Amino acid sequence: MISTAIRVARVGSAAELAAAALVMLGFPALMLAALVPSVPAFAALAAVTYLADHYLHRKGSYLINRLSKVRAGLSIRFLIRQLLLILLLARLDLSDDLIFYGAVACFIAFYGLQAPHGALVTLIRNRRRMPVATRNIDLKSRIRIPDAPPRRLLHRSAEKMLHLDLFAVVGILISTEADSAAAGFTGIGLTFGLGCLYVLFLMPYVRGRKIPPRADAVLAAVDDWLAGYKPETVLYFSGSRDSAYQVNMWLETMEQLDTRPLIILRERAILNNLAPTTVPVICVPGGVHLMNLDLSTVRVALYAANVGKNIHLLRVPTMKHVFIGHGDSDKLASVNPYSKVYDEVWTAGRAGRDRYAIADVGVRDDDIVEVGRPQLAPIQTWHGVPEGPRGAAADGRCPTVLYAPTWEGWDGNPGNTSIVLAGENIVQRLITADPPVRVLYKPHPFTGTVSKDAKAAHQRIAALVEKSAAERAADPRFAADSAALDRAKAELTRIEARLAELSGTGGSRGDEAEATRDGMVDVRRHEEIARLRTEWNDAYWRSFPSYEHRVISGAQPRLYDCFNVSDAMVSDISSVVSDFIASGKPYAVTDSAEVGVEEFKRHNTAVRAAVILSNSAAELGGLLDAVRDPSADPLAHERTELKQYLLGPAEPKSIDQFNAAVADLARKADARNVGQETRLGAANADPAEAAELATELTTALPGQRAATDGETDGETAGETDGVTAG
Question: What is the pTM of this model?
Fold first, then answer.
């Protein structure tokens, strides 16, 4: 029942649900205590409502947002509590006492302070919000950006201001019991005085040297930096907060480009969720501001998603535009008709080209370029498990099988995940395999968020793996080098301490303007963190026996790290399978919807070289046989062919193919621009034609159009911001 209530109320825990109930019931009870009247009961209930309300705010509860929508927001709740205190005084026959009039005057004046306080906070935030936000761009030497106001002034400012009424409430309640107005008037004075001081402390930050320069000065500084840096290749991205992973997956590729890279983002939420990178980043929320940036040196623009805001850069003819996507799969998003707008569409391998041909959505075959998947470079290829006793490797290591199912999805389709119908069967067969294998269970982080059956199955599978690990640890057939394990654990502790230290030295950025000013990456620190993460991964796998079953949750170790220590994988239809194919290792995919092997392979290209499992997982023996004896692996040749079909050839390396494609398209952009200049020069003999051509060119170039008065940092009227799939 509690879990149902949590789901219906959309709260995160039983404690949050209890706090919500206390808020809902606390105010009626508070009114009852005022009517009785009972000062102790009123004081106790007031404390409960204060604490429960504060807890919900700290948790960012969905219910708090809903209360605001039904006119029961934070300030209203505080006002109701204050009015109920006035009611209590009246019921105590204190309506003729000075404390009564003092309380009324205090709460009216205090409520009046909310307006200037709220106005100042809003004004400070708006004036410190610059038209662009950047990372790894030196604006500090070009414009003066002052420090952000102290965090304690602006963070949760409304809640802090309203809680100043505690002094008055406590003082008045003490006065009612002590028959003395001193405590009450002291509390009233503190509440009103501190409220006035809070407003006064905010005032200096709305003018003068406390605010950043005007928008035109900031944009001029960015243009000055662009003129010196001369970016050549841009990664452009727009999307929701949850889609940040789509741009994050391309950061390492951008860092390895032979040309000067730049990342352009359109939403501040994406910038806040961007992974650390050494590439310069500009976040430009306003369409007009983007079109005014001087991007005349850019020759290639890369797009990771098909969204409406792409039009703001697609309009620039001096650069070539490429759709690179955010994954290669058989999903409809991989053949979106929107892709017709780009000069080229880059796919990993031949499979991507064939998808567009079959879909017939208007993308010409000549405009498709196969560049591989640079992101898959960390995935190591497989050469089989060396011979060893009872199926173990020569170094005593058991063959490792990774079970990495996807989550249940939103639609309840049984084919989405194997966890519910097949998960326990898969794990049971793996942990009882003879010769033995090691099981790594790494579920999708969303597993169980929609389906209670999936959550329960996941918990049973995790318990099964952990129980089997404990039994294996007590089995005399399995032995580990305790000294080596201790050394690895000590190394792991040392690395984690250093990583925590480096993460802490990055400094806390006061606000977006300050983060822009101080957002230059420390390259040495960045490289050290990358090196330490590699060392951490190595130490992690050495910190427990190579035969030990393991449940792996959280961000570390990463999925690709699990690929590299595994000899085979069992999964579901998802991008995980497509990525694992890069390793060349045997893999199995579960046909949870039981559509049949042939039909399953016909609809899913990535499973054509897989062992297809039914929900009973009876076919797992074929996968384990391939792991133990690679020479007798019947699907080895098919995996090699499928890998090349999906991901392209192994040589040249994918990043080299990618760089070659960028260089080739840049040459095409230069040729186009030279041709246009030549045409303009030849047209000088005809003034009318020259004027028409000049107008056509200049109106399409970035940096040629000034923003009109009244345009804001956001979208202008009529701008397209709809998102299309992919």
Answer: 0.80
